Structure to design on (1233 residues):
């Protein structure tokens, strides 16, 4: 996948990139659209020819080719006696037209869907490979909107707006050509209206576009009020604020409705005025044709043909202004998508070093603040938001267990994110090594596959429980999955579900409690049997009893893994080989449980708070 | 990453999948209009007016081809232009009148749509404010939200645009048919033959397309939740290094989408091609049969040209009528759901006498509200959840005099919230009584009770707005001094200092500018500000670190002093000082007493407690 790091300096370059593989379809679609338009032009000609035959005028309205091939057609009586031939011609042309119309639409759909599939796939892959910093800086809802509605907008732009613009242009050019053949003067007068209609509708739609945006925002606000009210229903009731909520909703509801009422009034004026303008154009053409026909400049057949060509153009022309006005929206959407595509992905260094992960881990003089990241992460909802580290050094012996204790914001999660390279540590800010090799030089995938990091708020994917637990291991069998679940004290709960391990979880399935999620995440990690296991406060939502059971089971598992335990609860950490106490990004104490108790410092203080009940 | 947005999306997708399950087409009698009459009544005049005007507008449309007929038959054939002026004046007059009527129709129609929409939304929202909790337990937020926001809009369109579309296209079609029959009924019959054929073909495709488009919507929401997963789950995907797996699965979904969408387009392209083909067949029939009679002088050329125009234009209104009809059918399910919501009655409601004295939810008569002292008593209470199949409380008695602190402990999911739900009157006991200050809770209004209760939730919930607005939620007239005092009591000064504009800082939607711990502290301050007689803390301290938690515990001690309090907690250290501790297991209360009594008993509580602490010695 060479194209992964490609940058898109211009809108066109990105659109062309996404269009790869779809261009051919779009061209075929336009080709068939051209045939359709051409065939549409023939019907009025046939009518003209037929009608003129009735009256006996045959002056030069049959193309030379046809006259040469079927000389009989030029004879007045032949056509009069074989009128069904005309009907047949109409049907045949219609049939060819129908096939071309079908093909034009079909290829257009093929092109559009190829385009949108490629766009979505590329976006998804790209987002997956963007650094974690990027994910914490950007709001989920916003990104999803870029990936869904903005992508849809670009698809609409290319497959609907742009193609219909092309189609209208073809139609107008052809129709005007045929109209010119009948009468140049009337054609010019008829066409003089078109720029007026286009300009009128363009100006209107560009103006009203902003009002629509405003209405959308207002609707969003209204929707948010309802959403908040419903999710917070307990708070509303408990504080008895139903009346306030009603007034808040009513006010916004009225605002929103008023905005729309005004907008609809404008639209109604626009439609009605548009009707008057096009109606006037149709009348002008009709009167001019009538006068010309009376004067003998055009035949009756030509009169009918001219009017039907004109009527073919009325609606498409009214549409053009709107399409042009909405083109600008597509530009905005393309920019919103290129923001994602132009963000830089996670990268490995050129020559990665292969090393065994089964060795000592060392943090030496690690300092880190979120200023190291490009922008401030005030939106970040991480547990340890402003985590800052100051000159943190420690060593974890292979196969040993390290405990880290610290309050919210002490930087303990940040330490682990640095180890897993969710955040990359700038070179001047210290070094993290495994077996003496800097983690920057280890292949990212190798690093992460070997560090089993269980998050405090893990995410379950929309799959079955067994698929979730086995996700990180290729072909995990059921025994391994159940063994892992058993150690994580999850097996029992799973068996209570009617579908057991086939229970669908995540967004579209059963919602698990925080504790169940954490246990599932632990099982997920255990399945892969990684040489390094990190529990980032991953027992916080589990009750103490289960917490104890999991730890006992983990201890029994004769694993050779290096374990890092992060917790608020002393009971979780006390058996670790070594414990670090972190406060405001610095190591304030370290040692074993007993050593730390003797020190009578922060660890002891927290211990006392947590066990105070015991002393009563 | 923003938590709240995620849950919103989560809920929308959840809701979509629920909608899918119920997406069977039921047609209500008279398309559900009778059930909507009460809401439409207000706009009856406008609706009737728009139907009449719209009909006229549409009928005028059918008249325009008659102008070219007149021009051909009179001016061109007779070579006489003397009446051209009147011709032009008539045309322009008709055009102007039609445009004005068209404006009025569209304007009225949009007003009916928007006002119906607004009324229904408000009605649903207001009704939800009074519905009992069993409704919220049985339906997820996404589902309810869709009733308020999207059903109302769809019904608004049903009572306006859908009616109007039927009128417009119906009049246009019937108008053309009548004019054709009047002009030359024999020729008209040739065109008429095609109408039933067209109806059959169009209906077939419409049905087919509805099915495929439903599938497309499903796949589309799948893709959206895939994106959501890829973004919300980024941390997990990265730490597990499962990027490729996620991408492969994603490409399977987009492939499915591509195939289905092309399939749908295949039908819709076939559909339009066939319909235009039908128009051409109508045209050829008229040209052939009409041509013959025109040649024989039975019909004038102008008349033939009108027929040709009508023949070509016939298919459009038929197509639109069937399209509108299928939209109306699709809205049926929304009508049913919204009307059902509006007709759902609350399980917990005040009696007319209580409302008479204390006022209802929206019009409280605060002047009649007595002070709440703080005695709570459960007297022989038996309770079963409306959707449950087992009593969770049986003949339960508990006396909680003013100032008593009650703690409820037990494992996750053991049913610790039940008591709180009952005290707050979110649910009503199946039998027995809950007495507040010695009187049955039902003798006073819910508003009165809630006004005196402070509640801190397990998952803190803030509203979008400033910190100040949020803290004032329970006490709208609180001064900044009072607010700051409350903040100090829960040791949340740090949170405020960190924010750019202090109390004026925006907390974001659902408070997502703050961490969970910070939200908890603020919701705690909010509860304090309302100076409640009864305070309820639902696992409120579960995710705050030990040091902060200690600070809060101290604050709790101060503020629960003269208040009746109910605390649900994970960590037993929080509640050792409580007057009464209730131990809940499997939804039932299995032990009660104070800390030392329960320890002596060496039962479940003793087990829990020792497991938590003895290990550390």
């Amino acid at each position: 996948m060479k194209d992964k790091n490609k940058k898109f300096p211009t809108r066109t370059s990105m659109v062309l990139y996404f269009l790869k593989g779809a261009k051919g379809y779009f061209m075929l679609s336009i080709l068939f659209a051209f045939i359709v338009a051409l065939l549409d032009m023939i019907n009025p000609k046939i009518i003209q020819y037929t009608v003129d035959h009735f009256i006996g005028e045959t002056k030069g309205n049959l193309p030379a080719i046809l006259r040469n091939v079927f000389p009989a057609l030029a004879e007045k009586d032949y056509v009069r006696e074989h009128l069904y031939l005309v009907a047949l011609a109409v049907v045949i042309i219609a049939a060819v037209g129908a096939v071309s119309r079908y093909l034009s639409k079909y290829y257009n759909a093929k092109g559009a869907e190829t385009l949108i599939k490629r766009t979505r796939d590329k976006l998804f892959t790209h987002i997956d490979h963007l650094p974690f910093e990027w994910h914490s800086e950007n709001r989920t809802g916003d990104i999803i909107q870029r990936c869904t509605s903005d992508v849809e907008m670009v698809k609409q732009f290319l497959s609907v707006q742009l193609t219909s613009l092309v189609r209208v242009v073809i139609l107008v050019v052809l129709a005007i050509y045929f109209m010119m053949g009948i009468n140049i003067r009337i054609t010019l007068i008829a066409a003089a209206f078109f720029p007026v209609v286009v300009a009128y509708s363009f100006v209107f739609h560009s103006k009203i576009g902003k009002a629509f945006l405003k209405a959308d925002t207002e609707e969003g606000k209204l929707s948010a009020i309802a959403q908040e009210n419903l999710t917070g229903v307990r708070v509303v009731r408990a504080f008895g604020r139903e009346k306030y909520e009603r007034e808040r909703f009513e006010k916004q509801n009225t605002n929103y409705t008023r905005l729309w009422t005004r907008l609809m009034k404008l639209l109604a004026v626009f439609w009605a005025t548009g009707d008057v303008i096009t109606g006037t154009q149709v009348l002008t053409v009709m009167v001019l044709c009538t006068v010309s026909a009376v004067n003998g400049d055009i035949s009756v057949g030509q009169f009918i043909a001219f009017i039907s060509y004109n009527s073919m153009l009325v609606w498409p022309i009214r549409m053009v202004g709107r399409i042009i006005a909405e083109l600008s929206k597509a530009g905005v959407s393309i920019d919103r998508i290129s923001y994602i595509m132009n963000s830089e992905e996670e990268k490995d260094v050129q020559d990665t070093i292969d090393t065994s992960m089964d060795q000592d881990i060392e943090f030496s003089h690690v300092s880190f603040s979120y200023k190291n990241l490009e922008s401030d992460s005030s939106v970040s909802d991480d547990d340890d938001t402003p985590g800052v580290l100051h000159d943190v050094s420690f060593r974890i012996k292979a196969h040993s267990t390290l405990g880290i204790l610290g309050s919210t914001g002490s930087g303990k999660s940040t330490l682990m994110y640095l180890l897993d390279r969710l955040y990359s540590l700038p070179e001047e800010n210290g070094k993290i090594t495994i077996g003496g090799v800097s983690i920057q030089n280890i292949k990212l995938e190798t690093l992460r596959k070997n560090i089993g990091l269980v998050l405090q708020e893990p995410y379950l994917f929309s799959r079955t429980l067994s698929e979730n637990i086995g996700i990180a291991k290729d072909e995990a069998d059921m025994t391994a999955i159940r063994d892992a679940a058993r150690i994580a004290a999850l097996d029992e709960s799973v068996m209570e579900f009617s579908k057991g391990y086939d229970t669908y979880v995540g967004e579209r399935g059963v919602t698990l409690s925080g504790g169940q999620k954490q246990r599932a995440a632990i099982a997920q990690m255990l399945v892969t049997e990684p040489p390094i296991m990190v529990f980032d406060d991953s027992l916080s939502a589990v009750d103490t009893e289960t917490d104890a059971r999991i730890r006992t089971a983990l201890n029994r598992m004769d694993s050779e893994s290096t374990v890092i335990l992060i917790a608020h609860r002393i009971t979780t950490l006390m058996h670790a080989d070594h414990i670090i106490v972190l406060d405001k990004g610095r190591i304030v104490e370290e040692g074993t449980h007993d050593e730390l108790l003797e020190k009578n410092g922060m660890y002891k203080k927290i211990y006392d708070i947590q066990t105070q009940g015991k002393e009563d | 990453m923003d938590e709240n947005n995620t849950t919103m999306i989560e809920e929308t997708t959840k809701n979509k999948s629920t909608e899918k399950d119920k997406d069977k087409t039921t047609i209500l009698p008279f398309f559900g209009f009778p059930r909507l009459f009460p809401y439409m009544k207000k706009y009856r005049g406008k609706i009737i007016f728009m139907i009449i005007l719209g009909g006229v507008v549409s009928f005028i449309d059918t008249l325009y081809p008659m102008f070219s007929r007149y021009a051909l038959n009179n001016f061109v054939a007779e070579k006489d232009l003397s009446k051209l002026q009147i011709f032009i004046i008539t045309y322009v007059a008709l055009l102007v009148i039609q445009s004005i009527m068209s404006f009025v129709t569209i304007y009225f129609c949009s007003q009916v749509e928007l006002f119906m929409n607004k009324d229904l939304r408000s009605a649903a929202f207001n009704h939800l404010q009074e519905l009992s909790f069993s409704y919220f337990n049985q339906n997820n937020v996404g589902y309810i939200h869709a009733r308020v926001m999207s059903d109302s809009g769809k019904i608004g369109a049903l009572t306006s645009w859908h009616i109007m579309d039927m009128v417009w296209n119906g009049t246009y079609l019937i108008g053309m048919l009548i004019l054709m029959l009047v002009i030359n009924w024999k020729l008209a019959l040739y065109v008429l033959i095609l109408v039933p054929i067209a109806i059959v073909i169009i209906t077939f495709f419409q049905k087919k397309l509805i099915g495929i488009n439903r599938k497309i919507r499903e796949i589309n929401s799948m893709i959206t939740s895939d994106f959501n997963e890829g973004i919300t789950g980024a941390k997990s995907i990265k730490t597990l290094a499962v990027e490729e797996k996620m991408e492969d699965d994603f490409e399977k979904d987009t492939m499915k989408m591509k195939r289905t969408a092309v399939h749908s387009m295949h039908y819709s392209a076939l559909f339009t091609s066939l319909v235009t083909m039908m128009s051409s067949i109508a045209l050829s029939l008229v040209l052939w049969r009409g041509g013959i009679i025109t040649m024989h002088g039975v019909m004038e050329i102008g008349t033939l040209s009108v027929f040709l125009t009508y023949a070509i234009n016939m298919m459009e209104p038929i197509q639109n009528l069937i399209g509108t009809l299928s939209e109306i059918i699709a809205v049926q399910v929304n009508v049913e759901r919204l009307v059902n919501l509006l007709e759902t009655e609350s399980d917990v409601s005040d009696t007319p006498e209580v409302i008479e004295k204390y006022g209802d939810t929206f019009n409280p008569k605060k002047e009649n509200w007595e002070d709440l002292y703080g005695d709570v008593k459960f007297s022989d209470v038996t309770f079963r959840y409306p959707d449950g199949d087992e009593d969770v409380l049986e003949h339960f008695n508990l006396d909680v005099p003013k100032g008593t602190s009650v703690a409820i402990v037990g494992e996750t999911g053991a049913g610790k919230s039940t008591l709180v739900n009952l005290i707050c009157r979110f649910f009503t006991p199946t039998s027995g009584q809950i007495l507040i200050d010695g009187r049955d809770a039902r003798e006073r209004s819910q508003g009165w009770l809630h006004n005196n209760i402070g509640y801190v939730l397990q998952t803190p919930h803030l509203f979008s707005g400033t910190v100040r607005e949020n803290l004032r939620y329970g006490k709208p007239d609180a001064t900044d001094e009072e607010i700051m005092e409350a903040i100090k009591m829960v040791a949340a000064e740090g949170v405020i200092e960190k924010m750019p504009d202090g109390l004026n800082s925006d907390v974001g939607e659902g408070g997502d500018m703050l961490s969970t711990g910070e939200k908890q502290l603020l919701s705690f301050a909010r509860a304090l500000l309302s100076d409640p007689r009864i305070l309820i803390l639902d696992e409120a301290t579960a995710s705050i670190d030990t040091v902060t938690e200690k600070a809060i515990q101290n604050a709790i001690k101060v503020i629960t002093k003269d208040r009746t309090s109910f605390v649900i907690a994970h960590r037993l250290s929080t509640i050792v000082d409580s007057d009464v501790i209730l131990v809940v297991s499997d939804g039932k209360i299995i032990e009660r007493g104070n800390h030392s009594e329960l320890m002596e008993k060496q039962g479940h509580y003793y087990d829990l407690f020792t497991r938590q602490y003895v290990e550390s010695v």
